[in-house]
Amino acid sequence: MELTLPNFRVxxxxxxxxxxxxxxxxxxxxxxxxxxxxxxxxxxxxxxxxCTFLFQVISNFANDYGDGLKGTDNNNRVGPKRVLQSGxxxxxxxxxxxxxxxxxxxxxxxxxxCIVFGSNQWxxxxxxxxxxGFSIWAAIRYTVGDHAYGYKGLGDLFVFLFFGLLGVxxxxxxxxxxxxxxxxxxxxxxxxxxxxxxxxxxxxxxxNDRQSSKNxxxxxxxxxxxxxxxxxxxxxxxxxSFFYSFxxxxxxxxxIHLLIFIPLFFHLYKVLKxxxxxxxxxxxxxxxxxxxxxxxxxxxxxxxxx
Length: 306
Fold this sequence. Notes:
By secondary structure, this protein is an all-alpha fold. It has helices at 8-15, 20-36, 42-70, 83-86, 91-117, 122-141, 155-176, 184-204, 206-211, 217-221, 223-247, 261-273, 280-302. The protein has one domain (8-305). It is 72% helix and 0% strand. The protein starts with 7 loop residues before the first helix and ends with a helix.
């Protein structure tokens, strides 16, 4: 029975706040890079996190809305039940929430860019305003619409671009307005590990996705291929993490974030040996949390470059 006045817990369930640490990882990493170069502004940091929070919640609402309307969220789905699927929220209410949060997000981005660039750097202002609008579009169109890119196997690419390149390098740019070649390494770490989380999600749900015509990369290339792909998504961040600290070495402590790869390699072993996709749900949460912890250790290590 559908609720006419959904309570706060239902909206929290739809928001899926457990996904926030992963989305915050890029901002924390980009901020750490700025800190290592002697630049930090707490207002920019908080507003960047706020915008990322809104983008993630919009994405979660939109995924619930899009997959629910397409019938992808059904009784065969392995993951947690969605609110539209369960009848706790209507499609109309979810759509209104998506529109409302999109408006709030746009004005939040506008405020952030006004503080960062003011009226003196209008070219950067326009570029980042476009990127902010594109982020809102991407958050919605992953599953919503007839041409949702998540149903065409493009989810991995968009996650890498937005969580990795834009999340890390873009957030650093807000502080220092410059980019260096070395910046690609931390972006690779967050980008690949974020894609690893999506890959685990797609591996877990690949049977139902195939039946629902959601053509993720796992559906397109198969479960065994996805395991090899997942290995790449763990090893590339490891080497990127190592080389970044190696090239900017000033203290052994700068390698502390490599400790995160110890549990990640144990995780990879479990994935490679996995035979039941349902067991990957726990591994998914593990990688998301470890990515967040990596960003925290990276921020801590960045203080040794000051």
